Amino acid sequence: MKPVCVLGNGQLGRMLRQAGESLGIKVYPIGLDAKLETIPYQESIITTEIECWPETILTRKLAKQETFINRDIFSCLADRMKQKELLDNLGLPTAPWLFLENTEQYKKIFTIFNQFVIVKRRTGGYDGHGQWRLNQGEQYHLPLDIYGKSIIEQGINFSAEVSLIGARSNKERLVFYPLTSNLHKEGILRISVTIPQLSKKLQQKAETMLSMIMKKLNYIGVMTMECFIDGNNLLVNELAPRVHNSGHWTQNGASISQFELHLRAILNLPLPKPVVNSPSVMINLIGTPINYAWLSLPLIHLHWYEKEARVGRKLGHLNMTDLNTKRLSSALIKLAPLLPNEYQHSINWAIQKLSSILGS
Q1: Residue ranges per domain, the chain?
Q2: Domain 160-358 fold
Q3: How many Cα atoms occupy the beta-carbon half-sphere of 309 within 13 Å?
Q4: Furthest-apart CA pair in the chain: how many Å?
Q5: Distances (CA, A) of 250 to 26, 44, 211
Q6: Pairing relationship of beta strands 45-48 and 4-7 according to DSSP bridges
Q7: What distance in Å separates the CA atoms of residue 10 and residue 187, rounded to the nearest whole number?
Q8: 3-state helix, strand, coil in the chain (%, to 5)
Q9: E strand or H helix at 304, and its extent?
Q10: What is the 3-class SS of 76-119, one letter each residue?
Q11: Can you list the positions of beta strands (E) in 31-179?
């Protein structure tokens, strides 16, 4: 089996490497400053954990390799405006948007959108960086360098945020995980709850939408579609052409993790639909030091990234899965005192999700 080189050596690359180990596949996460002579890129399949990267000797060389899966797609999906144009061309619903060229547009923008707006840099923003939520009159605080490099969207008073993770093989086989409910704070994912058969109608709608996108792009591998639920409608928020934070629960809550599924897809290995029988919860550990007391709870699976701790940085995550939702909720209640106070809202939200959706 060919080895796999992953452009980027963060936690996603690390977890792809771990998934490769159990399959007997060598996976090499590559830092952007790596030396070409240290990388077996010529005999490898190449993938990435990031959508956007600087132009360097390394990235220029990799971009010329025919074995770089989805190589010509990233320039489209790394740009939020090109994403929006793709979705518009496919007739898929999104929040109304405009290209933000200058400050003179605001009078028209607030007349058209008639509520708060979201400004997003076309490239580079993530985890709340490069994004601003504005009410009328607040636009004057924005940096001037965003104009001509950003889009502006109508704010949506959505009832929930969900993500769908799917994979497509080069034989055009498509498989999907159940929809995942997500809670963000300041643009950073805090917690995810996944319940099999959350909503058959929404699941079918989301799968149809993501299928259209992957087929249009001839995309191979795992892709993530983040959506707002607005009434009975799904509005596509953003696409991620890679494994995704909201899919970390699959490491312990599915028969095949998103990381293994991505490797299977890009290496043309069998791609069965992952089996998901039980509800799962994933908690991001953000700027929080490791606490081995978490392991006193039998449902806890700790995934630690061995990164230097700093405020706002993702340092690891906790996965929990159980067929019995009451037992899962009870474990969350016991976990709460072992985490800083800032996690309490997220844990209460997850408990409400488990109880309200399944009536447990």
Answers
A1: 4-68, 96-154, 160-358
A2: D-amino Acid Aminotransferase; Chain A, domain 1 (3.30.470)
A3: 9
A4: 59
A5: 21, 26, 20
A6: parallel
A7: 19
A8: 35, 25, 40
A9: strand 301-304
A10: HHCCHHHHHHHHHHCCCCECCEEEECCHHHHHHHHHHHCCCEEE
A11: 45-48, 97-100, 117-121, 131-134, 150-154, 160-168, 174-176
Which residues are 94's β-sheet partners?
236
Contacts of 62 (CB under 8 A, 6+ apart): 5, 7, 41, 46, 68
Which residue, chain included where needed, has tokens 């948007």? Answer: 97
Domain 4-68 has CATH 3.90.79.10: no
Residue that the structure tokens 């993500």 belong to: 163
pTM of the complete model:
0.95
The superfamily CATH assigns to domain 96-154 is ATP-grasp fold, A domain (3.30.1490.20)
Per-residue pLDDT tens over the stretch 138-169: 887 889 999 999 999 999 999 999 999 999 99
Element (H, E) at 60: helix 57-62
CB atoms < 10 A from the CB of 57, how many? Answer: 11
Terminal-to-terminal C-alpha distance of the chain: 46
Give per-residue pLDDT as tens, 205-234.
Answer: 999 999 999 999 999 999 999 999 998 899
Q: Which residues of the chain have pLDDT under 70?
A: 127, 357-360
